[in-house]
Amino acid sequence: MAERGQLPPPAKRLCCRPGYGSGCRPGQRAGGAGPGSGALCAGPSSAAAAAALGLLPLGKTQSPESLLDIAARKVAEKWPFQRVEERFERIPEPVQRRIVYWSFPRSEREICMYSSFNTGAEDPAAVPGGAASGTAPGGAADSAAPRARRADSAGGAAAASATATAAAVGGCPARRTPPPLPGPRAPCPLLRAALALWRSRRLSGFHLSGTVTEPAMQSEPETVCNVAISFDRCKITSVTCSCGNKDIFYCAHVVALSLYRIRKPDQVKLHLPISETLFQMNRDQLQKFVQYLITVHHTEVLPTAQKLADEILSQNSEINQVHGAPDPTAGASIDDENCWHLDEEQVQEQVKLFLSQGGYHGSGKQLNLLFAKVREMLKMRDSNGARMLTLITEQFMADPRLSLWRQQGTAMTDKYRQLWDELGALWMCIVLNPHCKLEQKASWLKQLKKWNSVDVCPWEDGNHGNELPNLTNALPQGANANQDSSNRPHRTVFTRAIEACDLHWQDSHLQHIISSDLYTNYCYHDDTENSLFDSHGWPLWHEHVPTACARVDALRSHGYPREALRLAIAIVNTLRRQQQKQLEMFRAQKKELLHKGVTSITNLEGWVGHPLDPIGTLFSSLMEACRVDDESFHGFSDFTENMGQCKSLEYQHLPAHKFLEEGESYLTLAVEVALIGLGQQRIMPDGLYAQEKVCRNEEQLISKLQEIELDDTLVKIFRKQAVFLLEAGPYSGLGEVIHRESVPMHTFAKYLFTSLLPHDAELAYKTALRAMRLLVLESTAPSGDMSRPHHIASVVPNRYPRWFTLSHIESQQCELASTMLTAAKGDVRRLETVLESIQKNIHSSSHIFKLAQDAFKIATLMDSLPDITLLKVSLELGLQVMRMTLSTLNWRRREMVRWLVTCATEVGVYALDSIMQSWFTLFTPTEATSIVATTVMSNSTIVRLHLDCHQQEKLAGSARTLALQCAMKDPQNCALSALTLCEKDHIAFETAYQIVLDAATTGMSYSQLFTIARYMEHRGYPMRAYKLATLAMTHLNLSYNQDTHPAINDVLWACALSHSLGKNELAAIIPLVVKSVKCATVLSDILRRCTLTTPGMVGLHGRRNSGKLMSLDKAPLRQLLDATIGAYINTTHSRLTHISPRHYSEFIEFLSKARETFLMAHDGHIQFTQFIDNLKQIYKGKKKLMMLVRERFG
Fold it and tell me: What pTM value is reported for the model?
């Protein structure tokens, strides 16, 4: 991290020489040695120094470390240099040199922690080569990466000469072979500058400066960067670099100089603080020093030098009122805070930038990496962890979207919500730091309460206030455990951290648990519920489980993995003991509870999906203790998936802990506690986000369990927990009777089923079948038991549930059922049991249909013969879907019906016959005729079933019977299909035709009758077609302006059919046409068609009739002509009532067509003239229109 200016930071304290007196000559320290006396106490030999730094391989002869170095190292770690100066009047120069020498950071891991987003989970010496390849925000890595590639080829010699090793201090393991500086393929761009060529490096007191040169590349010249680093008590307190980079982390040049100093300390020239050097000069030397300094840097220094000279020469200047002068190399003062340099402004800017991107461009990933960096700092016990989290939280609270979402009443995005969850969890870890000072905790509490009081502070469960009691302070030490929950404000993401500030670590029992592996009490026989030891004498820890697990997380986060492991084991042993006690308690009351048919929730807060993730914490703590590849027991990061590190982990049963049963290990304990948490009966929380979190955390925990390969030992754990879950009543989500709003167990049961199936199929099926229920959808679910508050916390019964994740839950229920169906293939008894469970518990037709399809696919796999039992299950499920969706709307209904017929075809002819016999309970009449019967009688079905003639006829008879029944029930929609299906059977066809005739006068529309009539004509029944056409005409009514009505073609067809049959038929239908059709253009069209040919010209048998054309002066055409002329007259008056000028030309054309019709009558000319004159008289006000009429018609 480079600062904007290139000048070093100002000195932190004023330095003077307290031992300097009038009796001392210039250049000599009172009671001390001269400049050359350093040889009197030169410190350790080079071999000893190398041994101290871990530079020599193990096993070689080494000189013992000197007492001076041992003392100087300890002083350099703990004391600011000002305290050393004040404590001792005389400090020999060699002692000062060794203190300065040991004051520089010794751990590469700490340098690397401030160099990139790397989580620090790797071994410190391996960090440069194994860091994440993602670039840090701000451009540091981006600028360093291409130059590092250039250095790969040009700087090989530099890389070879820079070979060194990490210091074996700060908790970092020593290495037998010194690793080199990052080589050509090192992926960490922030550390690649260590390959660059060095021009100079100098250590002046507590100030390290150097020049880093990056070789030139094709597009850029050689880059020279001046780096300055101040340090104090093994921490870097400030950095500057001329590269000008702005970033959260140190720039590559600062990192390179720091690593060089750690790995090659003897090649960095060491000087005492500059004030000490100046003290050793006489007047002439001082004047020469100042003049040379001004000459070399005259453009930068001369104005400042002149100003200082003027102030020093002025007797009353402020500078002369102060004793001593500042020295930037003199080390820290007593009042200085000892912490690593952190650019707070850059942290704030980067977080603000990430939040402004709204989740795009990987900003969510970057924020997660920042949280991971906070956890890394906490694990290193770096005070900047809390400092950095404070800066992040301030930017989160200042996010303008919070107030916008609150005003609009909309929820924040899911990913953003998860960031807030992690923020709250980190604050929980910080306030539970077992070694934080009271003033620190008070400061954090004040800040948390300030954030908590802001209106836009997000609530813990997303959109709803959590009305649960204050369970964080469940330990007696909590002062707020009994407050009235009805008057409490909404719980925010900071509420738990605020409550955790009341917790402490002073409980003697807790201290013994976390501090010793030998804490037992074999004489302790108190068998009460809250006893401190179990029957083995092993310690137990009774506390609100999420709170106890938050302690474990805090210990892990602050770098106390062994203490965290001890407490985790005590918690798990407590849970197992409670589990056994609960089982015994339920067995004693089982008969009474089952008789009442009621149950209750034993935990208002579920452990899976809880904001503090207690089960996940215990699982991770125990799993990291049994990782094969973890020598230093640092644990794996919670954000590994966000960094793209997909390293596969291996686990093994490590030697048993003192407080584990024989044959148990950390691995078995981790698996068992995960099963306990997943199987817990708990209430479904309110709010969309809280419910989604329950599902998400459950799936995450199961995915971690799936990474573990089961062996005999773990199978025993699975058996044990499965049996408990089945028998534990209200304490288990798989108990015999559970509460209506209990979180379903489908996802967990599917995992249990697949895990147990190869080892104990009976138990696997029993567990999965018990989990199939979904009581929230059942109307007769058990209510809450309000009569036993002493051991069961009941929820409010009969509350209408708002399960926002119900569709996901139902899909998981479907997946569980599908898994059982697949596994039960070939087992008739199992399949029947699973089918019964599906029919009883699954309430979604779409999911049952999916199961039916799945079973069908499994039963008809290409590589094996069809499984007839599974096919029958598939058919039975399909039939249930038909019954469920018969009276409801479902957009997939036609697909379901077609699939059912296909499935029945696979089962056999008897299945097809069965569904046709009971069609009225499965299908609508339309579906039965248009899909079922039609498919059954198709050639493809006959070929597929290999039917003989007798079987074909029997199946066709069932189809015809179905068709006739459907036609009777719904003639409007089924009559045509029935006629089609019955064509080959004369009696059935006549019956269907009669059904149509009977329905024609009552329920059928003209369009349906016309359709059937056309079908009859097409099949060679013109007289029957004519009969139906006349019936259709009685239902038709065309007004004067419906000249585009879809029935016009049917009317023309009916008249043409009548005309072709003969004069009598035409004479019979024309009165119907005149009565039904009032549209003049349609009537005129019919009239012209009837005058073109002789009626009956083409007889029924193709014989031509030699009759004359029909006369317009005689019936029936005279009646049609008069009706047409009357229709034109009426239509004309109707149109003139509301005509507009833009329709005048269209109206004139209409009158021209009318004249053609008028002229068909023998006196038509006279009638039309009278009609026009009448129009002129009536509508004489429409002058323009009448003028057009006169122009056209006279």
Answer: 0.75
